[in-house]
TrEMBL record:
Positions of transmembrane segments: none
Molecular functions per Gene Ontology: acyltransferase activity, transferring groups other than amino-acyl groups
Organism encoding this protein: Fischerella thermalis JSC-11
Range of residues in the leader sequence: none
Name this polypeptide is given: GCN5-related N-acetyltransferase
Transcription recorded as keyword: no
Domain of life of the source: Bacteria
SUPFAM superfamilies: Acyl-CoA N-acyltransferases (Nat) (SSF55729)
Ranges of residues in domain N-acetyltransferase: 12-133
């Protein structure tokens, strides 16, 4: 997928988060039932429409790696490329090897379009293995369909 293929709806703005955005970000993340820990507004990018945040995502920093995380689009704003625009932007903003964890094959297929490939837990950098230990246990027990992925530039 090329960046040129993606565009925001008119009147939407992609911007770095500010301290005033933290409660909107928290609400989006909690409403999507995502991990509410490690929500540092400084790591987030948001998409805004009419002074309301309609999507967000962050690049978490770890030793020797980054994680694309907390990517959420408000339900009434889905299917308008916001998640794709934000994913592409975060990929280009990453300065270290980029990883993510997602639940289920449908999300894994979404991220695969951008160059993410599934990897085993053992292939994760040590700094991320510590963070994803519980997810890996849930995967092994068949409780959560987690997929670990690594970005590979096409």
């Amino acid at each position: 997928m090329k960046k040129d293929d993606l565009s925001l709806p008119s009147d939407c703005i992609l911007r770095k988060a500010t301290p005033a955005d933290i409660w909107s970000i928290r609400w989006l993340v909690l409403s999507a039932k995502l991990d509410p820990t490690q929500l540092k507004w400084q790591q987030f990018w948001v998409i805004e429409y009419d002074q309301q945040i309609v999507a967000c995502g962050q690049l978490r920093k770890f030793s020797g790696a980054q994680e694309l995380g907390s990517l959420v689009v408000k339900p009434n704003w889905r299917d308008r490329n916001l998640g794709s625009v934000l994913t592409q932007h975060l990929i280009h903003a990453a300065t270290q090897p980029l990883y993510l964890e997602c639940l289920g094959q449908r999300l894994a297929e979404f991220y695969h379009r951008f160059g993410f490939v599934p990897i085993s837990f053992e292939e994760l950098p040590r700094s991320l293995r510590r963070k994803f230990q519980l997810s890996e246990l849930g995967r092994k027990l068949g409780i959560v369909p987690v997929v670990f992925m690594h970005y590979q530039d096409k």
